[in-house]
Target: Phosphate transport system permease protein
Amino acid sequence: MSSQTTVTQNTTSGKSGDRVFKGLAYGAGIMILVALAAVTLFLLVRAMPLLTGSQKANEDTIVSFTGGQAHNFLQYVGPLVFGTILISALALLLAFPIAVGIALFISHYASRRLSTVLSYVVDLLAAIPSVIYGLWGGIVLVPHITGFWSLVAKYLGWFPLFRGPAANPSRTVATVSVVLAVMILPIITSVSRDIFLQAPRLQQEAALAMGATKWEMIKLAVLPFGRSGLISASMLGLGRALGETMAVLMILSPGMSYSFKLLQASQNQTIAANIAAQFPEANDLGVSTLIATGLVLFLITFLVNFIARRITEKARV
Model:
């Protein structure tokens, strides 16, 4: 009788624990939705004065921000969106192959001791504040990379992206993209490394047993397994690049044009860096205008994550 009572009590206790855990899990999920809704509502409410204000006041504010280069919100935000996407895409293009190579080296080529050390280094790089990267880029990289960009403009200037003359100092899109690539490199590397380490061991051993080389084994068993994870890792890196502020603000010479001239200064600007630069001296309508550009950045980030999720779901099939 006592044993039956004990079993009944344990069962009841287990069900109670399940209910508590389920409630906490539901609460955490709802909290994420509430936070997202709160951010969206804040951006919409604070951007409303721009949307409902007089056209003359809006034009005066935007003209003061751009020095007369733009007269309405679309003319103002368009080049910022272009610059944000261009710089972030270049950073991802530079960082992704290097990050995948480092992750493969850590997971499949390096010795256990070396891979442990490299993993610590990668995680440490991911924790460095963006302002430190900005200082390094502005003080160290900009003076030393100018000569390299001059050579690129000299020998590859026939290609529109590298058309010269290269700016001196090199406070350009190309230099900022390099800095952002260094910033997102540890994020992509860390996620990719963890995915490669989870690749099925039996499939790898089977490929090697059939006579495949190590690279062929990685190509056949590791990379297909980690395809969806690599997409997620790259989108995490792209998300940080899209929203990066201080590094871009401290290095880039801003411009308001739709330009692909990566080696020339005063061509492009990002939304986040523009908000940081204009916010201290903005009036109420100016703040509303800047928040409206922040809303556009929020929508871009949401769209990028949505597309990445769809691609990841298809890659898993």
